[in-house]
Every structure is written in structure tokens, then in C-alpha cells.
């Protein structure tokens, strides 16, 4: 299983990064590479094309319906429908009502068949080739889900990636992240900013969750353009004793 950071800017695209989007690839026993996108936020569809043909994605997994995590589904719909090589369809998994959200973003009455949406069912596994995905509801102002992806390890055996989506500290997040090889975790606030609760994690809280969950590596993401990622990492390092770093576009990690 391999992770590529396409976009990691929090709340809005930044000068150096689009909003949230992460490409996960895994090879099955026959050598076929399966590809899923975790979120498709504002500005992400363009740079995604550096790493994969969007028409050949096997699934798009959406954590929640805020624009910085799903806005480019609107242009993805157009891309799939009007591409000169013919129409294509990519299945989408996301919160209930996401189909209507895509139509709203497109300014149309209803979505096309290009992006069929299935609503998340917490605890019910979703299989995409060699990947098994489970989700858990997390703490955010709209229905939001963290995801746990289990698939083949590059070194043999099995590997686990957990993506927090947007959340504050909650039981579901720590439970889902338990023992993950890589924890891709949002950290939007600094403790000194005294940000509102129930919205986002700070660097310190992300580090504490990672430590509680005994994850192997912590990759901090969703840092807003106006926040220094080094400060976020420093906060997290006070709580988490394992290897950690901030995400940046183009970063690749093998599990």
C-alpha cells in the first residue's frame, strides 16, 4: 500500500497546496494496481492528474461535505462526463446526502451517473480490490467520518492507514486509529490559539491521540495556509514519541 499526498491545505487551498486529497494505491495478488482518492477538496483534481488518471480511480472516499474536502467532485463529474475518450463512472463513498451536495456544487438539479454515491455505514466494511475500508463517526459540525484502510504491505503481510478527516478528540478516532502503521491526522489549530472545541485538532491533541492509539508513524495534515506547520509539528512532538512530520504535496509513503 502506498500513499501520495495530492493536497493537504486545511480549510482553504494555499499558495503551495490544494485542499485535502490523498491517493492510496495497492497491488492485488495478480499485480493489478487499485487506486482510491481520500477526499477531493478545492483545487485537487488538477494535481491529482500528475499521479493517476482520474477516470481510472476505483473509488473516491469522502470524509465529509465541507468544500475543502469535496468541492472538486463537481468538476470531477464534468471531467468524467465530457472527456473525449468517452464517459466514465467512479463510485463514491461518503456521508448521507453527498449526492445532493455534488448537485448543489454543480448548480444542477441532480447528479449524473458518473459519480454514484453510497452512504457510509459505520463499522460496515467496504472492499475496493485488496483494500478493506471501515469508517467511524468523528466530532465535527457536519456528519464526518474517519477511515481505516487495510491492505497489502509493501514488505509482505498487511498494513493499515488511518485518515482522521476533520475532527476534534473523540472516542471513535482513537479506537479506529489503534495500532495503525500510518496515521494521517488533521491538526488545524495551535493550543495557544484557544480554538473552538468540536471542530478541529491542535498539534498537541493530534499527538496525544496518536500516542494513545500506539500508531507507528504520524503524518500531520490539514494545516491552514496561515499557520506554520513547524509549530504544529513541535506541539505534536511533545505528546507523540514516534516518528512524525507534516504533509506536503508530492510526499509519498509506502506501508
Structure summarized in a few sentences:
The chain is α/β, with parallel strands linked by helices. The chain is built from seven helices and 14 strands.
Order of helices and strands: EEEHEHHEHEEEEEHEHEHEE
Low-confidence spans: pLDDT under 50, at least 5 residues? none
Going across the major beta sheet, what is the strand order?
Answer: 6-5-4-3-2-1-14
Output the number of helix runs: 7
CATH superfamily: Ribonuclease Z/Hydroxyacylglutathione hydrolase-like
Q: What is the CATH C-level name? A: Alpha Beta
Number of strands: 14
What oligomeric state do these chains adopt?
single chain
- Number of structurally distinct domains: 1
| Rg for CA atoms | 17 Å
Quickly list its features.
255 residues; alpha/beta; Metallo-beta-lactamase, Chain A; seven-stranded mixed sheet; 7 helices; 21% helix; globular
Please give the structural blueprint.
Layout: E1 2-7, E2 21-27, E3 33-38, H1 45-48, E4 59-61, H2 67-70, H3 73-82, E5 92-94, H4 98-106, E6 117-119, E7 126-128, E8 131-137, E9 145-152, E10 158-163, H5 171-177, E11 182-186, H6 203-212, E12 217-221, H7 229-237, E13 244-246, E14 252-254
Parallel strand pairs: 3-4, 4-5, 5-6, 10-11, 11-12, 12-13
Antiparallel strand pairs: 1-2, 1-14, 2-3, 7-8, 8-9, 9-10
Helix pairs in contact: 3-4, 6-7
